[in-house]
Amino acid sequence: MSDIDRAALERFFTAAPFIRELGLELVSITPGECRSRLEIAARHLQQDGFVHAGVQGAMADHTAGAAAASLLRPGQHILGAEYKINLLRAARGESMYCVARVIKAGRTLTVAEAENWCVAGGEEKLVSKALVTLAVVGETLTGGRS
Amino acid sequence: MSDIDRAALERFFTAAPFIRELGLELVSITPGECRSRLEIAARHLQQDGFVHAGVQGAMADHTAGAAAASLLRPGQHILGAEYKINLLRAARGESMYCVARVIKAGRTLTVAEAENWCVAGGEEKLVSKALVTLAVVGETLTGGRS
Amino acid sequence: MSDIDRAALERFFTAAPFIRELGLELVSITPGECRSRLEIAARHLQQDGFVHAGVQGAMADHTAGAAAASLLRPGQHILGAEYKINLLRAARGESMYCVARVIKAGRTLTVAEAENWCVAGGEEKLVSKALVTLAVVGETLTGGRS
Amino acid sequence: MSDIDRAALERFFTAAPFIRELGLELVSITPGECRSRLEIAARHLQQDGFVHAGVQGAMADHTAGAAAASLLRPGQHILGAEYKINLLRAARGESMYCVARVIKAGRTLTVAEAENWCVAGGEEKLVSKALVTLAVVGETLTGGRS
Lengths: 146, 146, 146, 146
Fold this sequence. Notes:
Number of domains of chain A: 1
Mean pLDDT of chain A: 93
Distance between the termini of chain A: 24 Å
Number of strands of chain A: 6
Oligomer: homotetramer
Shape of chain A: globular
CATH architecture of chain A: Roll
Helix content of chain A: 10-25%
Structural class of chain A: alpha+beta
């Protein structure tokens, strides 16, 4: 991955106002994989002090989108099609991180899985897992529009 | 639904800091159904000016949770188990509203569907649809813990 | 929908050996909607006498695919991308039917919802509900490949 | 895992008529993990010669259910709550196998992921992946009903 690509992906990651508002940060991005981080704050929580399921879905969806974007060709972009997230354990701690990996990069659809982990007192727990389907839009290698 | 129940559900709806931060408002709640509203602001958007998929997932999950909560017995509460959301159309407009309906209220699991609509210039578009699975936790009618 | 289209869709519906083996029958197809039927037999069941979740997923996926196919243009075809099904109630009875409706027909992706109903002694129960995402493949109106 | 447990799980795996009809075989089962196999036959296919998406969903759901069942206590049993499957690549070959792993074993809900692989000419391809949510029903350790 060239420096130009990485810089573009980093700009893409925080281009969304909602993501900046959430405070979701890009940790690393390599072809097909993206890691993000969230410093847990009061505004992320539901009433019992756990990170809200909506925050976890947003982390998974966005990080998966970035992982998918890392495999695009010039002129293409990613649009989220759907995502499904299972909430496994209560997410309470100091921070969370998300690891998203593309499991199928297609001409028109890319699928990624994303794991959200919560860090509390030095211990990590897998708190949610998602499967994310993304549409690849734009110019294809053959020159036709997809 | 008694006034006491309705008041409790209204308090429950905005008890989560994340939901207050998002600005998601309760519009109405009746047994098995909940409607919510979001005045679209810059902080809800992704880079193209559409409401972020993470916001839409949060709306669906939370409104479905409230719809499920409207059917609880004293001592019970709702925990989100999983949700899946399809993003159907770009969500650009002045406001959004979510309608969530319970399609199965079980002893230990409740399932709801949630539709997110976007309002722009007086026109409404269905922008996303979700199926949400929620766990019912707490005292059951038989007295045992579930 | 022309007679030719309807005939083609009917042939498409039972073109899959698995569907013929299952005994899933096409009941009706109109633009964007498809209804199918299954006479429940011993081979459809799990060990408690209920229709197996795998049969219900197959009904939803296939009927949704037909509903999506009813909106195709010449040269296009449907490929299943993903589906999610919630199992709501035990499915025990004489027959089942599935109603699938397209909720978004896109240039490259179509989304349908499918409801599976079980008929027992004259009564109908909603036993499962699915959201199905399908890819539209082939020639588009503009002539380019998608 | 005792021999008695393993024998019971093996009987459970093929107790469902639908699973016997499909020809899905248990390969191995250890606490939290289950592997199954399908010799591909004409009756499993859709019209293009690929294994039907409904067959793949059934494999994932059933194998995940067995993986979940391997962690049950006496008196408990598993009921499928929902599953979501992404179809990644065309499944064409001589056989398929499914590997399901429990990622969260809860008191009332268990979540597993299942990967379906297709074997063709000695090569293996990941053809679909699922997240499966299962309800744990029956006597709990505390003696109460769940």
